[in-house]
Queue: 2 jobs
Job 1
Amino acid sequence: MNKPILRVEDLTVTLTTRDGIAPVLDNVSFSLNAGESIGIVGESGCGKSMTALAIMGLLPQPVGNIASGRIWFGDEDMVAVSDARMREIRGNDISMIFQEPMTSLNPVYTIGEQIAEVLRRHQNMNRRQAMVRATELLDAVRVPDPARRVRDYPHQLSGGQRQRVMIAIALACEPRVLIADEPTTALDVTVQAQIFELLSDLQSNTGTAVIMITHDMGAIAEMSERMIVMYAGRKVEEGTVDDVLDNPRHPYTRGLIACVPHIQEVVTDQRQPLVEIEGIVPSLSEFGQNACLFASRCRHVTDQCLAARPPEAQVSLQHHAACWHAEKLS
Amino acid sequence: MAGNKAVANTAEPVVGKARHPVMEAVAMFFGNYAAVVALIVLLVIITGAVVGPIYYPTDPFEMVWAPFSPPGQEGFLLGTDYLGRDILAAILAGGRVSLAIGLAAAFMSVFIGITVGALAGFYRGWVEEILMRFTEFFQVLPTLLFSMVIVALFGASLPMITFAIGIVSWTAVARITRSEFLRIRELEYVTASRSGGATNFKLIFSVILPNALPPIIVQAALMVGSAILFEAGLSFLGLSDPNTMSWGQIIGSNRPYILDASYTVTIPGLAIFITVLAISLVGDGLNDALNPKLRRR
């Protein structure tokens, strides 16, 4: 369990915008052990999805580029491998599920054909074998009546069912890493719970390591062992979910946790007001400064925060926070 | 993976299944009466052109009777032309050629147009720049003049006329294909396919192209009509193979007698008019049926 299968080292990804080149990911490092489940949280535009796309080699072309850093998958540096090798890895060793199940399936093919497609590409199955396997996979992701459903088109399925199909496609080749980019954001709350349950069941059955990208703290608490908090393209806090949620050391993490609404058992007049983190995420052009990018929204801000980018302070063995005042905030 | 669970062995008929998009488009098309009538007319014309010369084996080039015999008299349904040739035989034989040229030229322009448009829309960047400037080069050429030059230079054979029509009319297909590719390439299912390890070839031809087809099909149908008109135009100007009969050729050769025996020009003209109108109406019906924005109204 301790040898990481995926290791991201000092990854910097730039986006070329009209105003110049901005680092959407700024020196991000983390590692993922085999069979482990980690979560990446943060607000919109903080670089969560870019991290996923960079690992998959699917950065938007031609604007997105890996400026520096390494992504080690086993002994291979995925930044340097050939396109052909990258295609072998995608879908077979590392696969991804997307945010929008309504638009992630090709409307002109049956779902069976779409699952079979990946199997035929990576597992050298013939059409018949692949369709049989597709039916089994649909059953595994708990789509009712799979033998009939394989012949359905995406428009005949509900959002939750489509996301199950996406999961079936992603797990068809039993990949070692699954990246789930906000897999439940577009779904009903009840369906969300089912999808999480399905994902964690499949994970324990197959031993696939999962990177779960979300802005939902509850989802992280449910699904992941470790978590990474990102802000403005930087990793601000990392640790086990218990450590980070119980003892957050970065003011941004604290803000995120405070923002989770609470449902009271008895609705009284004293409803707790919703908490927000004041201010907004800095714009892309402000990324990459040698300063704490959260400073403008932070209550604990000092001159030091504006003068230099905070290093990662070690809180405990596995718990780090990139804040000058991490020691004080306990 | 829990795939070894027993798969439900359902063999009972599928109930309450939502309709396949193609079936929905077919139903939509048949709800459009003008398009259905046009389709029937078109089928009659095609049947006439295909089997007509078999059941009416008069040679359209043979002088069978006195010149300028009016329609319906002296035993010739559509009369005879200035050389005493049977116009009905000419219409039937010419229909084959006109329709064949229309189809072949449309096929050629769709083929070139899809290739250029798909590559430009998929790869973007310098590929798109080069291909679209190339397309614009063909767009700014006066089409009739350019095809006349080709036919005049390389001879008025059927393949050359088809080529001359196809080469000037693919630009519209290229632009439509490119715009559809630009739209579809950004959709999530393309990224999803890419994340499943699909090659660019696969993405272009089996992921994006099938989704881009509806407007291309409509354009192709309309293009058959315009290719027939184009061929008639060339023939009228005398740029046609004198040894093959086509509708334009009949009009062209009888042109000097338009005032004395107007039917020799009117009849093939009507044939072209009805055929092109029918094709346009069918294309219009296809447009309504395949355009998702008009569906379910």
Job 2
Amino acid sequence: MGRMRRAAVAAVGALALLSPAACGGADSGADQEVEVFTWWADGGEKAGLDGLVAAFDEQCDYSFVNGAVAGGAGSNAKQVLASRLQQGDAPDTFQAHAGAALSQYIAAGQIEDLSALYEEWGLTEALPPGLIDNLSVDGKVYSVPANIHRSNVLWTNKSVLADAGVTAEPATLADLLAALDTLKAAGISAPLAIGKDWSQLMLLEAVLISDLGPEGFTGLWTGATDWNSPEVTQGLENYKRLLSYTNADRDTYDWTDAGKLLMDGKAGFFLMGDWAPSDFEAKGFTDFGYSAFPGNGDTFQWLADSFVLPQGADNPEGTKCWLKTVGSAEGQQAFNLKKGSIPARTDAVEADYPAYQQSAIQAWKTGTQVPSCAHGAACSQGAVEAANSAIGKFSSDQDLAGLQEAMSAAAAVGKN
Amino acid sequence: MLTRVRRWGPGLLLISPSLLLLGVFVYGLIGWTIKVSMSDRHTAAESDGFVGLGNYVDLFTNDVNGRFLHSLRNLLIFTVVFLLGTMLLGLLWAFLLERGVRAEGLFRTVYLFPMALSFVASGVVWRWLMNSGQGDDAGGLNAIFGKLNLGFLQNPWWTDPEWGMAAMAVPAIWQLSGYVMALFLAGFRGIPAELREAAAVDGASTFQLYRRVLFPQLTPVALSALIIVGHMSMKMFDLIMSVSGAQWLTEVPAVYVWQTLLTSDYAKASAISVILLLLVAVVIVPYLVQTMRTERRS
């Protein structure tokens, strides 16, 4: 009898342990809900998203469900997204950098072709043709860009430059090097502020734009320009030289820490995308100047946040309405006024925006557009990661040949 | 027949849930990982091409910049410093406490407390303490050295390209030395008093007592401590992520797996994971075999 009872207890115990495993998995929402997956959880990004949601509520009959995953500058979100896509549990739409960063989703058939909707919503006319070319894979567009950021902007601390006697804005790389020497002579030991891996990659890209021109630069990522050409070698040498003017502990700095060097007057120059001024202003620093990176001319190096329609979304009609809002003039204005970027549409009303954004809108309309690798417009996610690793190694050992070889390999990642 | 089932049936039924869960979620998934590591699945797209050991060979011979070997070298430096540091400090503390100090309980608690923290929490603090700025820009420990006129002690910590990983081991040593101390202290307490008395009667000096009588008895404890700390070191991830973030300078295999996985290179990530598993197994399996043997003997 005792045996029997023990067996019964064992059986119950076994069932009790198994049951939590059996009843996992949450139900997906009703048809009226659109789950928007982003990594915009705080600051200007969250404010921008809120603006977009307000426009969405006006234009659509669906309700917005915030699927934001915070932390790690998007790396946490990407990890969660990857596993959800794997399990076939795609959100209704998700955020991704526009351009080559989407290539892995396209190759895996995880997102849908939006070309027909581009026609229907008039986006083909509203967006610049160069941008659409860049977003297209085999003539099809897979995402709707919400904004444009410029990445090749050189920010300056006006009073530091004035104190050292640098009056003219540097227009060429040679000018910049001369200005850096002047600052160094004035006692500023690291006049060019920089942060870790990806922000160094941005500097390398800006130097390469100066040395190769916009077309040659874009070719680096499409395979049209040879990474082992003497012009590229020259560009890498210039980059190495510029790096010698930067703070030695750059690998410990996030971009905001590097920006603080500029604010504190410990550096005179800082290359960063145009999300920097909102951080400057939030910290009470307004004495900054800006120009395109010396030697870049009117080249506008862009990156964009965009939204997609995943295969197997629960509510594709709701997603389409979200995408329509994202692409609409009202949606882009609501989003960009708060986030500090500019609309991807060329019909934006400049007067509605603050001073820096007005100049950026002008430059976006008139400049030559080239994509950014560091932010996934020109490079697949694998290529960005490999490039960051190569840049990080170069930062510690200054091995030019190794950098050239590794960058060449990185540019080929994901292309086969 | 029925009686025999009755003998082992309930036992089997009792362990069957955990057996099932372990079978599926540990061994099943290890098998799955090995399968993926031998495929050519380098993107998010499904792909079942079989490449045998190709991914492993690539890691050792064909990785850009020798990245995988670099991460192994980082792990080696980290592990050696981490093991030496915890073992020496742990033994020293245990020795001091064992000699009999006042408020032993207090010291024991103080040394053991860091272990209660997660590596993420202490990593955030150590990130600040090990600020690499020097001179006027110094922060954290470097600033303290500067204020104490010990400026020569200022150093770049984990940003040193050659030996940075040794600095990375400092927080780990701080955190686990107390644990090793507790193990050794238990070891000391487990040695019968008769042995000490016998040694004293035979006229052994204190040095001889420790060298010939007490330390040899601590060997099993030292081995356990080495295994426990060693396998933690092999898998180190959270501490490095919170001190430096994922970057070339401090990359170890576990961080490399994370980086590759983020770019959907499943085959490569699996191959690194399997190598990591083998590294840990090399440490643990002989220990398990030995433990099983001694248990069977007793």
